[in-house]
Design goal:
five-stranded antiparallel sheet, Rossmann fold, 2 domains, 38% helix, 337 residues, five-stranded parallel sheet
Length: 337
């Protein structure tokens, strides 16, 4: 059985120290025996070269989005599938802060982009450092890029964008005061990340007959909305009208059900998802599948980033497996055939 890795992103305005903290975390994790991949965005050398030229906000955004697709497909997802820990210097929140707010493209336009929902980190570390201190650090750099040289008003809008991300994603994004001794900052980061590294493979418990997320009342929420759920469904299963069965429950929530045979190399695949359309909230989902050898698996979560990531991994590698269901329940009934 393959062990599933996880994904950490680092965010903050230029000069906050995120690159240094990411490297320190990589060293700490490797010293504990973990296999770590360090990466960043923009990912491709060609993208970085093109960004040195004067571009319109739309051209710049298009470059970043193309770069992200390549980054996810060639580095991040394969590494997670192989059980590695991925540390990324900038990811989707930088796009919202720099392009959405800094370049004034707009938060709604950025949030609706498929590349913003293809994959989300398990946790995002945001280093909170006052702008004047970051500007002072940048002034000491020998070589500056065009983001470093942008006017102060641009960086103020970027900070506004990060505050927007923090307010929208309080569970995924953790803010850490960065204007301290680097070793103290790293201690706070380790307290957040090490519990993820200690999770066993297949940490979702097998569920019973019915999806365990449906409680008949509002479930504890994370950062994601019903709109994000629809976007995830569209990316994995096609247009919203083709999702499969859905029904309105007595409590007003809407439940979606998809049953497919031979989906992405699996013998069978069942997906349940539930939203509260009144509050535009995602409540939870469950994925059940049967591999080519007939062994059944089931995972459930109230974290939409986690469910979205599992679907992406299953599409990429159908041999990726969680803890099997007990032998007594590993039959066709439990996988919905």
């Amino acid at each position: 059985m393959k062990k599933l890795g996880f994904f950490v992103s680092f965010e903050g305005i230029d000069g906050c120290g995120k690159t240094s903290q990411s490297r320190m975390l990589a060293q700490s994790l490797r010293s504990c025996g973990h296999d770590v991949i360090e990466t960043r965005e923009p990912f491709l050398d060609l993208t970085r070269q093109k960004l040195r030229h004067r571009l319109s906000p739309g051209e710049e955004l298009s470059l970043f989005l193309q770069d992200r697709r390549t980054h996810i497909d060639t580095v991040i997802l394969p590494a997670i599938s192989a059980g590695k820990i991925v540390l990324c210097d900038r990811f989707v929140d930088s796009t919202m802060a720099y392009q959405g707010f800094g370049n004034r493209i707009g938060s709604d336009s950025i949030a609706n982009l498929p590349e913003q929902r293809l994959l989300l980190p398990d946790i995002t570390i945001f280093l909170d450092v006052p702008l004047n201190i970051c500007q002072e650090r940048i002034s000491r750099r020998g070589k500056k890029d065009r983001f470093d040289l942008a006017p102060l008003s641009f960086h103020e809008r970027v900070i506004e964008g990060y505050l927007f991300c923090l307010n929208r994603n309080p569970e995924r994004i953790r803010s850490i005061p960065g204007n301290r001794d680097p070793s103290l900052v790293q201690e706070d980061i380790l307290r957040l990340v090490l519990p993820l590294a200690a999770r066993p493979s297949g940490h979702f418990p097998p569920s019973k007959n019915e999806p365990s997320y449906s409680l008949g009342k509002e479930a504890p929420m994370n950062d994601e909305s019903a709109r994000s759920f629809y976007q995830m469904m569209d990316q994995n299963f096609g247009s919203p009208n083709m999702f499969g069965k859905h029904k309105t429950l007595s409590n007003g929530n809407v439940r979606f059900e998809i049953q497919q045979k031979e989906w992405c190399g699996l013998k069978s695949f069942v997906f349940y998802g539930e939203i509260d359309p009144r509050k535009s909230r995602f409540l939870g989902a469950e994925i059940s599948w049967q591999d080519k050898d007939g062994v059944c698996y089931k995972i459930n979560s109230r974290s939409l980033p986690e469910i979205s990531r599992r679907l992406s991994l299953l599409r990429m590698d159908s041999t990726l497996q969680e803890t099997p269901l007990p032998a007594s329940t590993s039959n066709k009934k439990n996988v919905g055939i």
